[in-house]
Structures
1.
Amino acid sequence: MQTPQHPGDENLSREDAAARASVIVLDTIEVDLDLRSAPDASREDFATQSTLRFRASSTETWIDFLGISVDEVEVNGAPQPVEWDGARIRLSGLAEENTVRVRARGRYSRSGEGLHRFTDPVDGAVYLYTQYEPADSRRVYPCFEQPDLKARWTFHITASRDGVILSGGAEAARAEVDGGVRVSFAETPLLSSYVTAVAVGPYHRVDGLWQGERQSVDLGVLCRASLAEHLDADEILDITRRGLDFFTRAFDQDYPWGKYDQIFVPEYNLGAMENPGLVTFTEAYVFRGAATAAQREARSNTILHEMAHMWFGDLVTMRWWDDLWLKESFADFMGTHANVATGLHPDAWVTFASRRKGWAYVQDQLPTTHPIVADIPDLEAAKLNFDGITYAKGASVLKQLVGFVGEDAFFRGAQRYFAAHAYGNTTLEDLLVALEEASGRDLRSWSTAWLETTGLPTLTVERGPLTVVQDVARPHAVRVGLWDDEAGRLVARGDVAVDLFGERTVVDAPVLPDAALVIANVDDRSYAKVRLDDRSLAAVRAGLSTMPDAVARGVVWAALWNAVRDGELAASAYLAIAAEHAPRESHPALLSDVLAHAAFAIRHYVSDAGETSVAWLQGAWRAMSAADAGSDAQLIWARAVGAAAELCTDRAGEMSAILAGEAPAPAGLALDPDLRWGWLFGLAASGHADAARIEAEAERDATASGRTARLAALAARPEASVRRDAWDDAWDDETLTNDHLDATIRGARAGKSRDLVAEFDGAYFERILPAWRSRSIEIAARLVRGLFPATDDTAAVDAWLEAHTDAPGSLRRIVIEQRDHLARDLRVRAAQPRP
């Protein structure tokens, strides 16, 4: 057995991965896990064994493993001395054909990376699940951890008899063993390591079946037993069946992976993960109380996004993480496209325009922005590139591409791509060839302009003659919408298509009325920020909520918010427009985003937030009270009340009385646990809920969600000693799970926290590098982002960056991004008009 004293470098480089792939042809990996130790809280280890079969043209290579120990290495039947530096197991004496067996001990995770272990406070049940992307399967079993070394996998899992034992393949055999059961699974088709999966525990299961034109697939929907009453499996199965109908027809390719289980798991770091045959989702999609149409749309989008990955990413996989977009951009586009095409959510592109594109616009204006086809030198860089560029910007330009080549040609190209590269690995060139063959169009200039560049154009409109101006010349087609005021309502006068190439393009059309409102990119087809001229802004101030077209409203709301972020529209002006028109905004996703932006503006852009906070809370309270009973709008405004309560004390008495049952809630408003905790967190942060009140709520909601919410609320109390303890716990208490760390950080930064945490600014810069070196990247990144000081200048950040030019590039990237957010806050705040 070897336990390294000085762990090796976990950060696999692109060059090392390419060198290994050049000498290895991988055939199969057989994994044997013994997880009978999971119910014993005192045990952090489990037994793991991998048997790898491969051809080699070199006598040496290495296997990846991160764990407690490596106990035995056997090469072609002969024991070999264990040479393990904590990350790589060195192999020598390889032949042309090899069978390598490695026996080791892994560590249960509390960070959501690798094999995560969770104990349900409701019933004490223990649950396990895996999460690997981009490179954490090596935390569970020895393997070749890179996407272009695919294998056929066979899993054997030994665990307690209670509950389910799952992997991506179908169960093939089951045998009783001492203290449990050993389950063997059918061999998978060729898969990359990061999409293999395991789940164990007393999960509640609902079965279903999809009957397609050429195949039938067994379906399963699972969640923790204590959440079973909240699992709306029928709706999830309906989405799944419609999605499989759509994708198998659109891609002209059968579902490749046998069964299709979808499991909702606790303390999950992502929205979901596309493990074929065993897709994992965050439990946030199991709604414990009321859920808006926007929340259900988002869940449907995620289900369809992961389903698209069964082809884009799983069947055909990028060679290295530079081409991460080959799966994520496509899945992001396909999730929304399929939501519309299946009839599940016909206006899903409205949400995409507001939410997903907003994410991309923010990311693309950071100094660390990157092309969609990115330069990813190593695994740490890959981890941080799961961002708004790779997902939402990529999906946005794919939407442009579909418009450019035509939907039929686009899907013919996808069909060619899957037929040519099934179970293989690809690069950008492979996709372009398939799309060019299907469409007959040269896509190289499009790729250069959109996939291989950074930044986004800003579109403005000049009148007389009507001209579209873009500050960054990109080739794209937009529609310019023309609207007029009719008896207090904005009415569409028509739109005109404009092909943009240079910086200035005169709109050429037979009739162009002198419209009150002109909107470039009115259908949100292109990827660009939109600016409104003064006359259009005046029209929007008066009539935004009267526009019947939700997509156009979404473009306008986004234009207003981007102008605020750029310091060109006063935050007070945005808040005034929101106060006037948000109560009449009928689209729940748009309303949620507008209210989130308003709350952000108050926290970050308003110099004197006191009076503004009071006015916003009062307006949110009135809108909640006036909304239709039981409506999405009522619930969204009620959540906004909780957020606003962090910053001011008005309505605290009424909120407390409603929570205590001493006063009635607005008619139709369901005070479910999540809403109650939202209000209580706001009250705690503003000093109106003490520890006793929080503990009483925790007794009322003795669930995992309640436990996490309790931590956040306790840490949010505006007392110096409380915030100091929370700050110290975040850095030092390594027993905190990923969710509990987030809750602690959220509490430490809640409400008017600056005076309570300013003393820690210096310690932050002393702690971030040691944390990066000693904690997993998932946990370290949360600490570096979440506890970044909201100082009044960037001097301390600049000093750290200057003194740490040799710090890991991924750490520097996060600090640089946080510095840019801070600089924007300061710049926009300084640009606000004086009262």
2.
Amino acid sequence: MEQGLRLLIQLVIEFAPVVVNLVQKRTAEGLNTTNYQLPQVIEEIIEFVNITTNSKTSEDEFHQEKLWQQQLAVYQRETQLQIAQQQRDTSLQLPEVNKVLDSWPLRLYPSQILESRNNHKNIPLKIFLAPPQIKFDQFDCQPEEVSEVERILAEGIREFINTNYSLHHPIRPTEFLAGAWDSKRFHSESSIKALFSLLKTEPILILESDHDGDYLNFRIAYWGLGQENYFYKTISRLPYKEILQEFAKSRAVEWKKIRDELVTLGEDLEEINQLGGDNVENLAILEKTEKWQAKGIDVSKLSLKYQINQQDIAKFCQVLITCHCLVAAWVADAYHLVHHDVPPLLPELLPSFLKDGLDLPGVQAISEENILQVYATGYQQVYQALEKERRYWVPELALQLAQSLSHLPDRTWAQEQVDYSINTWLELRQVTTQEFTHALEAMQSAIKIEDEEYVHKLQAYFMAVGDRQSIASIEKILQAIATLKHKLTLESPELIHTLTGHSGKVASVAISPDGETVVSGCADQTINIWNLQTGKQIRTLTGNLGEVSSVAISSDGNFLAVGSCQHPKSNVTVWHLTTGQLIHTLLGHQKPVNVVDISPDGQILASGSNKIKIWNLHKGDRICTLWHSSAVHSVAISPDGSILASGSADSKIRLWNPRTGDPLRTLTGHTGEVKSIAISSDGQLLFSGSADTTIKIWHLITGKLLHTLKGHSDAVKSIVLSPNGQLLFSGSGDRTINIWRIATNEILYTLTGHSGTVNSLALSPDGKFLVSSSSDKTIKIWQV
């Protein structure tokens, strides 16, 4: 066991910097490649994250930044897998494959390995064993006694892997391929290079050992996902001859005790020695050696040949198994941590290794403190590298490491990480501890509902280590969170006005930028203008409008755009909101106009039928046409005006450059018509509501689907976001309005009151008033 721990220490010292370098390179480059789709997109995300993480943010923005960093990490990993898949598909088509196979070290062909990947959530780490060819002929033992070394070693590793890191493990899948190595032919650099040339897309660990005089050279080769080169190094020289001799001497000492006890009982010494086997000869050599050493003779210069039997070899095999298992576990943990965010398992297993280890007489012992220090330091290096990639996740990462280290006998290492986790949590929220007696008390002063999961993890740690004082403090924090939840529940939205001035379904509503006016468009071919505060009608616009489908107000409050869906009167009109004067009538749509929207800068107007037309709002000139194959139900323009998103009857969302008309990307995922779209005020998230009753949240820059919200029982007709980006409001054909907390994807409230489909929602600029319009011919104003 001491040899296993010594090997683990050397591995951590050598291998931890390799893992750190891999993470740092991934962070710095951000998968920067010109050969695959979306490299510029990834750079934009990294630039965004760097900007936001280097600036002070409010608590309202804090959890949003965490989401960005998490999604960036997920997107990087998934893009990496896509790149690896493309490389896998082409690797066997390389012209030099046949030459590589001439020095191929495995009994499995590359195609068998590349095709063996199962549908795992996490990509398995493959482990190959290149077993040692030990020459036991220098010992007095029979060849048949040692022929099973390779089999015993493989069986021991297999049992350990299957118990703790099996191929079917949900988060740590690891595939041990025993017997695959053609051990009689290949070892060393050429074999590793041949493997890497064809299997670089597969995360692989090779445990290799070979005979070198009285030693075994223990090497590992490793590469993870997306590595440009492999790691290959000798990490230990195992003195197997010395170990075997120590086992033989230990047997002789034990035999001497039994012999002396039998002699004391009066048994014949000669008969006893006949039962002792090779222990008799080994004891004689040992006693001579001790006598010579007592007289000052250097016995290391003598050729002392102890007889080795199967029992010694079995113990030696256990040493080899322990060495291989410890190394395999550390590397597997590092791989799954870096690539899949899975916490390490070896800390939980290490105490049993420390407790049940083998004592090797004559071998210098390794202190438990030494192994724990090196081990904890190695993991801390890896976690610190991950922290640079995901700054806002430092508290969770440090706590994760603490939970792993809590299984070790010395809790000092775990406590250091817990303290670091809490202090970083406070620093990120700009909370000083000077006014408080301890860090957990300071934490209570800044706690939010969104922190509940982190606090529960802290509670689990303190309960595991039996820290009663900290448990009491955590309970107070959880009580504070419960109070916040209760307070939030009490502050439910209130219906303050129901407006009844239309004679048909009210298709669309909008609120002026000053928060004073509500505009409603109706199927009764009228537009009503209302006072938001009093609910009183101010003016009605008419004039050959046709059935109104959509209304939009410019950011300066001067222009009102109206879309008509009554064919052949389908058109778009632009009015002066204050005076009610008609400014433009925009013609060109051949089918009903379902939606209109004005860019945040107030320069362009978008109108959608089966096509989307982009107009100059002030001049009324057409800029370009965006071609859809199905009816367009919803349109939204990003805050900087660089992206227009449109949802259509074909269940797809398309992203465009509204200035040039160039298509950017198509988002698929809904199974019903896309009825509504909204873009967050920071231009990072896209929200879509569909006839499939779901709301989907997308990363606008990458097009990545982040979440799917389920809570309506009919089509989601309208969605709108609160100014601070924390709440989402959705109106549905099920006659309800749901209010969602975006950070947790939970429904906070469900508003009822409409007796027909909720067609449109609008939120006042200060976020205090919600206006809803319905097929029940009414408009409702809610105080939120």
3.
Amino acid sequence: MFGLWHAFIETPRLKLKLQFKVAKKGAYALDMAMEPFPLPVRFDRVEAEGGTLRATGSAYWKPDEETSVELRFAGDAFEGSLRLPSFGVFALAGIRGRGPTLYASLADEIAAYRKTDAPPPRNEAEIGAAVETLLGKLSLADKVGQMCQCMASNFSFGGAVASDPPERLVAEGRAGSVLGAFDLSRVFELQRIAVERSPHGIPLLFNNDIIHGAQTIFPVPLAWACSWDMDAIREASAIAAREAAASGIVYNHGPMVDISRDPRWGRVVEGAGEDPYLGALIAKAQVEGFQGGADGRGSLHDPDTIVACLKHFIGYGAAEGGRDYNTVDISEATLRNVFLPPFRAGIEAGAGSVMNAFNIYQGVPVAASVTLLKELLRDELGFAGVLISDYGAVDEIVQHGHARDTEEAAKKAVDATMDIEMVTRAYDHIPQLIAEGKLSESQIDDAVRRILTLKYRLGLMDDPYRYIRPEREAELHFSEPHLAASRALAAKSVVLLKNDGVLPLGGASGRLEGAGAAASLPSGVSRDCIPAGRGKLALIGPFADSKDLLGPWQFSRFGHETVTLYEGLVAAGYSEDRLLYAQGCGVSAPVEGGIEAAVAQAAQADIVLLALGEDSGMSGEAASRMRIALPDAQLRLAKAVAATGKPVVLVLTNGRPLDLTWFDAHMNAIVETWFLGSQAGHAIADLLTGARNPSGRLTMSFPLHEGQVPVYYNHFRTGRPLTEANAGEKFISKYLDGSNEPLYPFGYGLSYARFEYGELRLDGNTLTPGGKLEARVTVTNASGPAGVETVQLYIQDVCGSIVRPVMELKGFVRAALEPGETREIVFAIGEADLAFWSPAAGYAAEPGEFRLMVGPNSRDVRTVSFGLLES
């Protein structure tokens, strides 16, 4: 009964494909995936007797109602029954294997609708002329319809919304875009209604949140940011776009480019961390990948690309208390110097869309802010693309207390140049607002002009069905090349936080031992570089054999094939008789006898891998936490295992920086793996065994204590800064009960190699306007294997017209160094690197003294000084 199995369910109302994966590591485990609705079902209690397997658990959409299944196996076939909340009880009959795609029969049907003689891409002048011609034919009601978005089904990304069925809205021309169409057949059905039955046959945009992969899941964005590898991030975004576009999705609600300084906020998992410079580079790479392919040079007309939507404009990451949707109160200088750079970079890279933030700014909800959306985004930054509201954000202008009713909310959003209202129906008031003289039809024309222009650029107006490609889905989804790219980026995203020499697993040299030693390795990795395994491993914890490694904001139908840590270690060469497994506890609750079983396994092992963390529901939207410690059940397990005296390696799965102070004191090694995606287990095993050398570097500081939050590296000095000289004084900016410094600073990460830095040198003491200074430092791989060192450049403006941070990242080099190799790293510094925004001068560099710092992280740096001369 072990392995993959599939079955189809077909009723007059729906057709489902089910996949089951049966495994056993001490106890039986059952995982299930469902198409076309990629919603998780978890089986907690699994029993087997003879050829029959029974399991009970819960479904994501109705967790309080039991889900149950019975499978009776005979040879390569099975039969049984499944009870799904909201769906009912279904008889099952299936066979071994992943099975054919649910949409295999759709390929022949869609072929008749495709245009084999579609014209080549139109240039901007041709698109402009076509848009004006079509705009002239539309009634006001038709125009408003293009500005409205509906859900594809009853599935909701947020609160329930009162609306007509999508079929009716589309047929009547009252929706120009659709959110959440997970079913390719549904995309085809609704697009055909739009083309054949709506007043002008204008095709729909199909939108979805493709945050870190479509079907092949990559590391969550906070994780892939820790790679500091723009090429790999661009490639991941391009692969996500390729897979999504094959399923008819043309418009992404991503990337999220909010700067995040407060780890209590659940959405830190979706962004690049606390630094605006690095965040800007990553925003650019993601836009290029989504809209231009792996090399960033393609166009939106390419059917393997999708529209990138920068979100959330702006300041959402500064929500008070780290509580989602909460108030934001920041200065204009903070807005422009901290939160704006990633948006500016994404717009300069050509992002086709921007989405508003949920928060207020200067007392006004962003969805209604003329100051932010029209004056800053459109007029100053020159953004000419489509501005879309976040889910329900127009209605929420009323909830904020800035509009009396939805009619007034609609007026305020249109005045702020909001083009598309996501899902809610406040824009139905637009005709009345125009009749009353409160809005002009020219405002509506501007919005619809932008929407139609995007549809022409995507090629939809000339070939509405060009993105509905079931044969392309079958080729791309979860394909081997995409899985390989996910595994490679996952390995680059892991951050080694502590290591007393227990890692990598194995001796000084040799080959892996035992079954699985011939398992595949990433390209470029030699089997000879892997240390010999040392004795037995105890693999303990709720994430030791968990598939909950994908993280939030993903809708993969292949979640049941996620590689667990246990499976990754077996594939890396650890035979099952050398892996002593115990769950120990659940993520948030104890398991009866769990700690006792874990301690017993640890006592027999040479090394313990303690796999702890957060489940996917503890990170992401609406997943803010007061405490950023691991749940108490896991801490009790960790203390019991540590008490055995065996070497313990903590392997973390999580979506935010955590309070790890106790673990730093009691673990022999700490490996931050985040949520690594479809190939997580393989990637983690690659790092643990030494097949790959860790190279990830933190993009958010880890606090010493959650009472420090928010703690970030690029802070201001205050008038009474803490220094080594005044540490014993009372009236300075410090805590009575702990350090000001984080446990692990921004930019931090260890390697199995030891890198040494030489003297930092400048080729001059002054920088002239328009000129350049060069900073040079030698870096040597002094011992250990080949590795990548991320050499980081920081600058401090010592005295400015407004106070400047203690340091700001201004450059970095990822240097791959062989054992014993020395390389000179050169940074060129120009006037633009010193510029910032001030109320008096706008964006400019000010003459004066500067400090330049280089090192492996924001704490351990070498410093020199220079001056900028007046122009």
4.
Amino acid sequence: MTASQAPGWLDGLQEAVWLVDEGSLRILYANAAAQVLSGLPAAAMAGASVLSLAATPQDHAFWAEPAAVIAQGIHSHTLLLRADGSLLPVDRRVVRVPMDASSGTMFMLTMLDRSVQEATERELETLLSELRGTLDSAADGMLVCGLDGSIRAFNQRLAQLWGLPQELLVQRDDAAVYAYMRSQVQDERAYSERLASLAREPAQESNDIVALRNGTVLELRTVPQFSRGEPAGRVFSFRDITRQAEIQASLRLAARVFESSLDAIFIADSQHRILRMNPGCERLVGPTAKSFEGRMAASLFGGNLDAAFMEQVLEGWAQEGFWEGELWLPRDNGAYCAVQLSWVALRDDEGRLVQSIGFMRDLTLQHAAQKRIEELAYSDVLTGLPNRLLLSQRVDTAIQGARQSDTGFAILFLDLDRFKIINDSLGHPFGDRVLQLVAERLQACLRQTDMLCRLGGDEFVIYLHGGGAEVAESVARRILDDMLKPFMLDGMGFSIQCSIGMSLYPQDGATLDELIKQADTAMYRVKERGRGSYGFYQPQMNANLLSRMQMEHAMRQALGLGRMAVHYQPQVNMLTGRITGAEALIRWTDPEFGAVSPGQFIPLAEESGYIVTLGAWVMEQAVREAAVWMHGGTPIVISVNVSALEFRQPDFVDRITRLLAVHQLPPTLLELELTETLLLQDAQEMEQRLRVLAGLGIGLAIDDFGTGYSSLAYLKKLPLHKLKIDQSFVRGLPDDEGDRAIVSAIVSMGRALHIEVVAEGVETPTQQAVLQQMHCDHYQGFLCAPGLPADAFRALLAQQPRPVKAKGRRRPVQG
């Protein structure tokens, strides 16, 4: 079927439609909506496999089913791989449809864009979560019901007030909840009748007192819940007024309104003079409450209220019979208390003002709650620092001001170096407290006009008001110096190092997001150069990051394209001069980058995790080549570097064992080179794995010994066979006294512990002679040969006479 043969009405559908050949699963036709949804023209999709639209393993598995299974159809939510590489959530259907009157059947694939729906669902989920948090933070017990009485929600305070059993909290049984609440009320009949009355009048509001059997007295306030102007449910609010009820019990001879009200109430005459206050009002006003009797009620709120206030009150009385608003009530201690005043006019039958009653409610807690909400919206919960939202507002204001005054400012992006070690070793609670200490110390380094913001984790951003490069550099130095001072927590002293990247407005960016991005890039470069310092953003940095991305992409393709190779550098016995081993070295030659140094791409592989794939490939190549040497009559030990990430893989030991078995290479001819840092991480687990490997007969060597965290303890405890002296110490021989002392100490240490020692980077006969004089066992380096391709290394092996008897590996030290 072609586009011209397809029904024309398909292009009129909003739903994306593809017609798919049943046998080949190739697209026969795509309608206009399919072109828009996929981002591909119909001509490009025609003839393409339907798998080009599949973005998930489940979709691939579905289309791999027999035609009879696919014909059963499917309706599901999945992802569509668009032309630009993005993934689009869609609602997908597949059905079998007739092709035409005589040509059999085909599959019709239809999709609808669900991105807006999913975004809406996520927004609703967030809103519901926030509403639930608000509900649970309320001081009153809240119960929300539908018109039919079904329970929609209730908060923890309700469960506490009523003592709801745990089983009612974890299962949905509205009838059981209502029955339990009725059983807790002293007057079940009156309570049930009141609820029935409210159910008959959905728009009714009420305020009742409910006494529980346990002595608790609750104020029940209920209001209808409206949707589009119609009652849709009811909200019950229960407040514990046990204490208030006890106080009011002694005032039963007073007016009923005084007895039952929780509000502060005053009564004024027709001239607005105070006649009486209830106890609640006296408590709210304070000790001087009695002095207000006979005075104008407006004087409660200070002497500065002008005549306009009473004009507003009188206007409210005339229109609605009451006036309501927020006022500030002076207190005896000089402070002010926010109150909600509802002032009601009482008139006689002829409409003359007789009295007025004022109801006041203390808004202190409400204002405090509102302030807390604002703090949470604009601050970091852990440290109390401003969050990104508040920082964004501050920077937006600064940008507006900078445009008018032609001034700039600086953004500092700060990251704590190796903070993960603290969290992993001492726990996240301890790490959180450390972050609080760090926040305090950073804040002390800034001016009041600056702003410190925590982005999350151990990342902080600093806004320096009106600061240029000199100010930014000065602050960065001050921060680095202060951070080096010891921290004390729980009697433990420790230090924290940080790295800082800096960007300047306007030269490095026009928005906060751009400035943070550039400062982050500068900070990343600082970490690359050794951490614990600061640096400004330079435009070239983005180019360097792009270059790194391109190199990582090329590295990941290199194996499949045959651009990686393993070379072998000989290890020579110092006394006999014979080649006794070889170190496998990975080499990469790229058409664009040329011969790429391992020092350049190995760290990149370690950062990205690709080192596991590279390491596995090098291991397999090395083991295969060592088996070739052995079967060719020249068995020597092959030494392979193992990264920390590769060594931690759960199947590492099993994979090595399988490789040796497949290539029939004795374990004694394989040696693994490990770093000192790896041996100190997860020491117990590492020791167990090392002993398994040593038990198999595999040799274990420490690479670049002396450059890490050298420790006699692990040398004695772990089953190690060999130490490799880093070439940085060998390079200074024989003239550098420090290098001579270090090399001599390492050789002596190895001989004392019965561990063989190999010197790396030997380039001159003089260096060899000095090492031989020190009784070093082996050496490798350009003096013998650089890393050689496999065929060149075999030729080098063939040039030396065969040994009379193979020399076994020295037994490892066992802890």
